[in-house]
Hints:
Distance between the termini: 63 Å
Strand order of the largest sheet: 10-9-13-7-6-17-20-19
Number of helices: 9
Bound molecules: tryptophan, zinc ion
Structural class: alpha+beta
Strand content: 25-35%
Largest sheet: 8 strands, mixed
Radius of gyration: 26 Å
Number of strands: 28
Helix content: 25-40%
Amino acid sequence: VNAPRKQATAALTATALLLVIGATADAAELSAAKPCPLPKRPPGTVSEPGQALRRTGRCVPQERERIRTVGIPPYTDGSTGLGDPYFPSAGNGGYDAKNYDVTLAYRSPDKHIDAVVKMTATATQALSGFSLDLRGLRVRSVLVDGLPAVFRRERQELMVTPATPLPRGRSFTTVVRYSGRPGPLSGPMLGTYGWIPTQDGILTLSEPDGTPTWMPVNDHPRDKATYTFRVTVPNWLQVIANGEPRPPVRGAATTTYTWVERSPMASYLAMIAIGRFRTLRGRAGSLPVITAVDPQYAGAAGKLHRTTIAVLNWQRSLFGRYPFATGGGVIDDPDVGYALETQERPVYAGFVPDTDFIVHELAHQWFGNSVSLTAWPDIWLNEGFATYAEWLWQEHRTAKAKKGRRDTAKKIFTRYYRQPADSPIFQPPPGQPGRRDLFGFSVYIRGAMCLQALRQRIGDRAFFRTLRAWIAERRHGNGRTADFVALAERQSGRQLDRLFHAWLYAKGKPRDW
Length: 513
Ligand code: TRP
Ligand code: ZN
């Protein structure tokens, strides 16, 4: 098949026609300029004459081809959910998001936003249409590969039909312009999350499905992507976000802050904080560390900063190299009752964290952020591991104390194991907690107890080798419980089904394993 040559001729003819019709243009200027290149046509397609494009730059616009596909499987819409057992309509099928470029202008005092999100993605099937997750807000336009697309809203989906279908494997851009006043979500056991107003601005904390309250996104940890945030605020405000800062650009009344997250990130970890901050910069070894605290907590900035550095250094020696470009932490004022391990820079909301809390959120940078969930029922892979990191910290911190005063993970396990069988630390089973108990005690504590049970079964060497291999093999990727079990069995040479079944899936207090 050598369609391309024929089409080139057709395009040239079309250009010639346009030149004749283009009466308003300066003829001499036009004939001197080169024809604009047409966008690449995917293999297996033919083109038909389309509408003329507007004149751009120094080239003569050609007719835009209308691409028609021939002889390849039918184009279908990507699914409007990824079928997660707990969040069936979160995420979308048919494409793989690679990057989100988020440009957002924030207005004070009404906290209104005008935003443009450009998603670069690859079609994983022949696509006639696809969805993004977005809740509320007013969508003004959607462009796919620069051309206006048809869109409609249906519950939490923004459904997009591009002007031309997208062949499988094709990289494409989607630009969504939208505006409005985002608001938070709240759910049983989840508290307040998503876009949360603060005294002096806003803060986003979006686990598990809150990011669509403020940006269109493929909202599932299975589709990680890189992000750039460019946020424009009145001059008296500042912006903190994930990743590395670029120099702010100050205008007459507003300043634009840019933050770049260069490592793949699960959507629920995307964070922007708008407000006033006391910011400290330092390093843990060669790793840049940025700590930012709301002025109400200014007195705690130094301690948070130093503790973050100390904990990161210790965790690197335990888990292996830190997975991201920077570290840090944020304290801001909404008292939502939890912290979140937002990538590179966890947020402690409404309180000054103690060291255990910092250990927990920073452990998530390895367990949860670098190695992410494949599905939400596996949440213990995040929370059980981060809680176990707290136990390891206690063990490390008291290692040089007299024997009776050492607080080993084994001792902590034993203390919990003495709890009555009907304690919420044992119910529901953490490997299948149900959506309501995603962040319940058993996910955290029985999840961590599972790791201690594993350690006692296979010994310290195989146990820490398993943790490090998990992190190294799946860096910037995803994992499932079954993958972890298989890895632990490989590293230890033991059959561990019974142990994991007892600790993760069996009802009631685990007895024999
Ligand atoms: N991942 C958070 C942590 O453990 C926990 C979390 C997120 C949470 N949202 C929540 C806990 C809502 C309770 C309620 O650091
Ligand atoms: Zn956690």
